[in-house]
Structures are given as structure tokens and as C-alpha cells.
Amino acid sequence: MRITLVSVLIATFLAAHLSADENSSKNPGKAESEGASCHGTAVQFVPTPKEAAQLAAKQKKLVFVLHVSGYFEDPGFT
Amino acid sequence: MKALANEEVGTLLNRYFVSSFQRVGTFNIRNGQKQGGNVAAYFCAPDGRVLHAIAGPVEARTLVEEANWVVAKAKEAVAQSKGNATEFKHVMRKLHAQRLEEKYGIRVTPVLEDQALQNLRTALAYRDADGRPLAPVLPEPPIENQRGIGTQHPNDARVHRLLAAHATMRIENLYGAIFEGILGEKVTTKPVQIDQPFAWLKQRSR
After folding, report:
1. N or C end of chain B: smaller count of CB under 10 Å?
2. pTM of the model
3. A chain contacts of residue B114, beta-carbon cutoff 8 Å
4. Does A53 contact B179 at a Cβ distance shorter than 8 Å?
5. What percent of chain A shows pLDDT beyond 90?
6. From residue A15, how far is each of A20, A49, A54, B43, B142 by CA, in Å?
7. C-beta neighbour count of A41 within 10 angstroms
8. Which uninterrupted H or E stretch holds B176?
9. Residue B3 three-state SS
């Protein structure tokens, strides 16, 4: 468990640093993820935190989770 | 949500994070006006362990600052811990305590060893409106200097204080302490409450 966590963290942060620098020149600020939607923001959101975690592990990124009251998808109920 | 519409925020978050959202609270609409409701943001490792958090709405500049801080400090923690997960946890908690003192003059001793969590079946667990336990109540490290005692601290200081003891805790165990403990919002699965759901219908005279 600890080894898994360590390897995931190391891979995530070090590779994120490298891949972010490599990708910035090709596609600055774009998350290449299917099913992502911006919901009227500049941030690409995937539908669930579980999918975000899976994609983050795959893309060697961190996870950003927003907890809201109401319905984030509907501006009138956020 | 205006901060999330900022281009710099979008570029930064899309570059270093995969983003998602969850509804954990609700609010009321009375006479067409929104009452209540709030937002919290969590910066996590892919396995759901919380590295940093923001309690409440913030400006774009603040969101950029906090996101840059967690990315930089996470890299620093990885380098210092040299592959040791326990040491990584210790470093992150020390960094939160350090920033709490540097930025707010509040001194706490980081709690490096995980404490036994409140059982969800105890009366102190955060519960939804139906009494169902949702998240444990988390103890905060005591403030050690006179300057920090007896004053109302801003939410970001309270987050640092909490994470000085609980950084790298999994989000499902931490979110209650932030959404309800710091923001004072009831964690619930109930939908938005509207006092006049059929407001477009004219009231018939009797």
C-alpha cells in the first residue's frame, strides 16, 4: 500500500512537472480528456471525482475536486 | 464561480489537475433569491488524499496562488521525502503549519502521526438532516502563541490549521471538517428547496 502510494505520488509529481513543460508548448492549458465539459468556466471538468482520479493517474496529474451546494451544471442552481 | 471563468485559472488547473465536482450541500430559493449554499475546493493526489483545500468562494488571484502553492509544495515534499510515503505526509503537514505561522502569525505544532478518527456512529460525527452520519469530526492542533488565541481567523488560516494535523487524509474523511466544520454548511443530499416551485402560475382568486 505504502509502496503503491509512494510510486503513484512520485510518478505523478515528477512526471507532471516534465509533461506539463512538454505539453505547454504544444497545447497550453488544454486537458485532453473525453467527456470533459467546462460548464461555463475556463476549467475542463469530468463528470465524477472517480473519473477524475482515474484520468489523473493516467495523465500523471493531480486532482481538483469542487464541492458545491446546488447543481453545478445549472447556473441558476449553483 | 467567477474565479473558475478566469483564463489564468483555467490554464493552470487544466495543466496540472484533472477537475471534477460533487454536490454536497443545498440552499433555499425564497422569493426568487438564493439563501445559503457554499463551495469548497480540494487539491488531491490521484488516490484522493487531500494536499490542500480552499474553504469558501475566492477570487481568481487567490485560486491561482493556492494552486501554485500546492503544486510547488507537493514537488518539494516529494523531493524531501525521497520516496517515503510517511515522510511525505509529515512534510506536507509541516508545510501547512509553516505557512500558517508565516502568513497569519498563528503557531501550531503539526500532528505527524494519524489520530484515531471519531467513529461515524458517535454523536460527534457530521450528519445529514436525516441523522445519517457522513463524515468524522476532526480535532485541530491547539494554537500555541497568544497572538492566535481568541481571535476570529479567516477560512484559509483555519484550513492550514486543520491540514497541519490532517493533510494527506482521504477526501471522504476530511470534507465534513471543511464544509461543515469551517464553512458551517450542512452536508446534505437534499435538493434545492424552492418556496414557490410553480411561481409562473397565476394564483386564482377565490
Report:
1. C
2. 0.80
3. none
4. no
5. 29
6. 8, 21, 16, 17, 37
7. 20
8. helix B171-176
9. helix
Contact A61, B45 (CB under 8 A): no
Q: What length does chain B have? A: 206
What is the longest distance spanned by two Cα atoms in chain A? 45
Consecutive 10-residue runs of chain B (206 residues): their mean pLDDT? 88 96 71 71 95 95 97 96 94 97 94 73 71 82 77 90 96 90 78 60 52
Scanning every residue of chain A, which has its alpha carbon at the shortest distance from the alpha carbon of B29?
A77
Is residue B85 within 8 Å of residue A12, measured between CB atoms?
no
Check B10 against A41: CB less than 8 A apart.
yes
- The owner of cell 495523465 is A59
- State whether ipTM is beyond 0.90: no
**Per DSSP, what are the bridge partners of residue B55?**
B40
**Cell numbers standing for residue B203:** 394564483
Residue A5 has pLDDT above 60, yes or no: no
With 0-12 CB in 10 A as exposed, 13-18 as middle and 19+ as buried, what is B120?
middle
CA distance A77 to B82: 45
